[in-house]
Amino acid sequence: MSYGDTINYLYGLQKYGIKLGLDNTVKLLSCFNNPQASFKSVHIAGTNGKGSTSAMTASILQSAGFKVGLFTSPHLVSFTERIKVNNEQITESEVVELADEIKLKVERLKLEVKNSNLGTFEPTFFEVVTVMGFLYFKRKNVDWAVIETGMGGRLDATNVLASEVSVITSISYDHKDFLGETISAIAEEKAGVIKNRIPVVTSEQEPAVMDVIKKKAEERDSGLFVCGKDFSVTTKKEDINGSIFDYRGDMELEGLEIFLAGRHQILNAALAVKTSEVLIRKSAPLASKLTAEVIKSGIENTEWHGRLEFISDNPPILIDGAHNPSASSVLADSLRNNFLNTYRRIILIMGIMADKDIKGIMAPLLPLASDIIFTAPAYERAALPETLARHAASLGFTNIHIARTMEDAIGMAAKRSALSVQRSATKNPELIVITGSFYTIGEAKEVLGEKGVLSRLRE
């Protein structure tokens, strides 16, 4: 199959949308002799913070000398960001080769299912990508893989893993149309990653969520470790460059440093450190590898993009993928606590998906902005800028502007910032903040020159 045919096949999978369930993934993986059984894994679910926690956990294991796969989604600019080994992205040619192989198996399964009168076999984009990731990790001979769920947990395509540890980050409202209308229903889906007698590490959660996780852990006879109860962190220093904190658990680690801004990243780091401790509990030989020095190094060397990340110095532009009300509140807190001391004002650029809680995402952030620019990334699910403007107006905001494209939005923001600096007696610059969706901030990075690889391959 030609390169073009393969890419068209991958793009074509997106028409199947999101279908939760494990059957397709199980069938397809069995055609490749279940590659997920060839490595040990850590499985990470949650609403916010699961990507950062995954990156930190992988970094710790890599610092310990293991060969480590990392599977995350969505990507910001390049599809290849989703599948990494020792922090090196899969190449475009490797994606094409694996897609060719998987397509052949899919076609065979389609025929078998059709001939058996068992309906149809139409795997989704995410199911195929999950199989691609697991197969890649097997062929790269990884020792460990850190796997982030795509959505939910119980019926997420990644939930075929027999993981060594299950991790559940902060749970809040998101994807209600798939996971349920109540926080308890959403927690039930996320807690579906909990396996029989496999330990669980979780952040401090609201009572309704904690009740669900505790009940599921008890049903599965899984040890449960909760941040704030079984382990804790104390912040020593926090600024726009990151944080220094102390950790208390099985180990006492002082002066851990993380170069990811925001207090929430300290809590994500705590989950990653506790996960390391749980692995040591399960396997005594790991104690010689997952030492205090290794854990410190892993946390310090973590790279994770799109979360309070500067992508330009002049003018200063900060991006964050806050795409639900909880993440938006965390972003607002970080801006107040760390950035408004340095920057005079905030110019806010927002692009939000139409199926999200638009007002809920806006409410924490709009009061911080001197100017609000609404735009839309070039993606079919994006809400029109005019729609966003109407929502903002209904919340009482009038300092609103509309830009048709991300390039226009950044240009408008830069011009307004330059004019403001000229008129102001103070030297403090304004900060341009771009947020509302990973699609939005990914497009911003492309506008500023980052070249994407298969960037439009999204579920």
Task: Explain the overall architecture.
With 459 residues, this protein is of the alpha/beta class. The chain has 2 domains: 298 residues, 3-Layer(aba) Sandwich (UDP-N-acetylmuramoyl-L-alanine:D-glutamate ligase); 139 residues, Mur ligase, C-terminal domain (Protein-Tyrosine Phosphatase, Chain A), CATH 3.90.190. Helices cover 40% and strands 17% of the residues. The protein has 15 helices and 17 strands. A hairpin with a 3-residue loop joins β10 and β11. α1 crosses α4 and α2 runs parallel beside α5. The mean pLDDT is 92.
Can you summarize this structure?
It contains 15 helices and 17 strands. The protein is of the alpha/beta class and 459 residues long. Helix 2 (23-30) runs parallel beside helix 5, helix 3 packs across helix 10 (292-300) and helix 7 (183-190) packs parallel to helix 8.
SSE topology sketch:
Elements (H helix, E strand, L loop, with lengths): L2 H11 L9 H8 L9 E6 L4 H14 L4 E4 L11 E3 L2 E2 L2 H24 L9 H15 L4 E5 L16 E4 L7 H4 L3 H8 L9 E3 L4 H13 L4 E3 L5 E8 L2 E7 L3 E7 L4 H20 L9 H9 L8 E5 L2 E4 L5 H15 L6 E5 L7 H5 L8 E4 L10 H10 L5 E3 L3 H18 L7 E5 L2 H10 L12
Parallel strand pairs: 1-5, 1-6, 2-5, 6-7, 7-8, 13-17, 14-15, 14-17, 15-16
Antiparallel strand pairs: 2-3, 3-4, 9-10, 10-11, 12-13
Helix pairs in contact: 1-4, 2-5, 3-9, 3-10, 4-5, 7-8
